[in-house]
């Protein structure tokens, strides 16, 4: 049985949402209501669930929201036209185009068309560039959620050795940049890393975003290290599994996130936080 502290993403997420709700109420008195547009192309079941959850979060927090559902055979031109329209719409502060997109549409073209000030996913090259150079930007949601969870443990990030397994544009790279911004010394591992366990066993903070169920066990972990599992993998049994073997890892780790209930709940919460920030900036209030 684990004696490690379990970091509840649900609890941290609920706390942040409560604060956001209070802020939305006071902003409404100043005539500022954050607005989020979510665009779904096609009928991918997982995407439909994500879109529904995002609309529900908006409703719960008092945001204005629009959901645009487009046919699976929508052309890139038509999607771009909608994005341009939403860029101009003053009651919309955040635009989220649900990925993945059908193959006739180039994701990069769509991401690049979203106004950086409304890019609440934090994927636009302007926001990515600002993150790298340390300027104000809209941060990508899952990586920002990872940092919130680490901070919630009360463990100081500054001066620690953080190891990130994974270097994708949506998780590994931005998490590494954010950890570095918090003054951690960061090592990034990927599929070509040699002697990975030697590196991960030095980590005070280990973030795992590999996309392989139960990839990291106790043998990768320094006793007492903080372990954040970003992975969401659907097993053949239908159950969800993280990238970390929780049973094994938690026998040596310090604070550790479970799957589900760890990083997952943070992503939409950080999306809401970004939309609120974008709304405040649009109203000259930040
Ligand atoms: P990805 O694009 O597939 O990237 C996986 C990364 O892991 C790559 O950088 C890859 O290295 C590395 N990798 C693969 N096999 C490895 C190995 N044997 N040893 C070391 N590194 C290895 O995945 P992603 O989009 O970053 O997502 C990672 C996980 O997070 C997935 O399970 C995904 O479902 C989950 N996720 C969760 C959320 C959330 O809201 N909680 C959001 C996004 C993603 P190379 O670069 O060398 O190929």
Automatic annotation (TrEMBL):
Binding annotation for NADP(+):
166-168, 232
What pathway is it annotated to?
Answer: One-carbon metabolism; tetrahydrofolate interconversion
Instruction: Identify the domain of life.
Output: Bacteria
- Give the CDD domains listed for this entry: NAD_bind_m-THF_DH_Cyclohyd (cd01080)
What are the UniProt keywords, alphabetically?
Amino-acid biosynthesis, Histidine biosynthesis, Hydrolase, Methionine biosynthesis, Multifunctional enzyme, NADP, One-carbon metabolism, Oxidoreductase, Purine biosynthesis
Residue ranges occupied by any Tetrahydrofolate dehydrogenase/cyclohydrolase catalytic domain in the UniProt entry = 7-121
Transmembrane stretches in the record are none
Q: Per the record, what are the reactions this protein catalyses?
A: (6R)-5,10-methylene-5,6,7,8-tetrahydrofolate + NADP(+) = (6R)-5,10-methenyltetrahydrofolate + NADPH; (6R)-5,10-methenyltetrahydrofolate + H2O = (6R)-10-formyltetrahydrofolate + H(+)
Q: What is its EC number?
A: 1.5.1.5, 3.5.4.9
Task: Describe the task this protein carries out.
Answer: Catalyzes the oxidation of 5,10-methylenetetrahydrofolate to 5,10-methenyltetrahydrofolate and then the hydrolysis of 5,10-methenyltetrahydrofolate to 10-formyltetrahydrofolate.
* Xref: HAMAP family: THF_DHG_CYH
Q: Which family does it belong to?
A: Belongs to the tetrahydrofolate dehydrogenase/cyclohydrolase family.
In Swiss-Prot or TrEMBL terms, this protein is called: Bifunctional protein FolD
């Amino acid at each position: 049985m684990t004696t490690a502290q379990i970091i509840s993403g649900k609890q941290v997420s609920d706390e942040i949402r409560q604060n956001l709700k209070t802020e939305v109420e006071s902003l409404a008195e100043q005539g500022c209501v954050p607005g989020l547009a979510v665009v779904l192309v096609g009928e991918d079941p997982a995407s439909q669930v994500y879109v529904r959850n995002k609309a529900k979060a908006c409703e719960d927090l008092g945001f204005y929201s629009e959901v645009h559902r487009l046919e699976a055979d929508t052309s890139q031109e038509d999607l771009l036209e909608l994005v341009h329209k939403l860029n101009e719409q003053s009651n919309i502060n955040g635009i989220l185009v649900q990925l993945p997109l059908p193959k006739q549409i180039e994701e990069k073209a769509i991401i690049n068309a979203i106004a950086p000030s409304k890019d609440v996913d934090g994927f636009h090259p302007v926001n990515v560039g600002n993150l790298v150079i340390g300027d104000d930007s809209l941060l990508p949601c899952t990586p920002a959620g990872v940092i919130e969870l680490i901070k919630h443990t009360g463990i100081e990030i500054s001066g620690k050795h953080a190891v990130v397994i994974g270097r994708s544009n949506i998780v590994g790279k931005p998490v590494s940049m954010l950890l570095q911004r918090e003054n951690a010394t960061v090592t990034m591992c990927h599929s070509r890393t040699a002697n990975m366990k030697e590196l991960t066993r030095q980590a005070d903070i280990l973030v795992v975003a590999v996309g392989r169920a139960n990839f990291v066990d106790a043998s990768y972990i320094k006793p007492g290290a903080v372990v954040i599992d970003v992975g969401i993998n659907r097993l053949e049994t239908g159950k969800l599994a993280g990238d970390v073997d929780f049973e094994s890892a938690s026998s040596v780790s310090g604070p550790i996130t479970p799957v589900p209930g760890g990083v997952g709940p943070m992503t939409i919460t950080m999306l809401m936080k970004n939309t609120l920030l974008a709304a405040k900036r649009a109203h000259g209030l930040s």
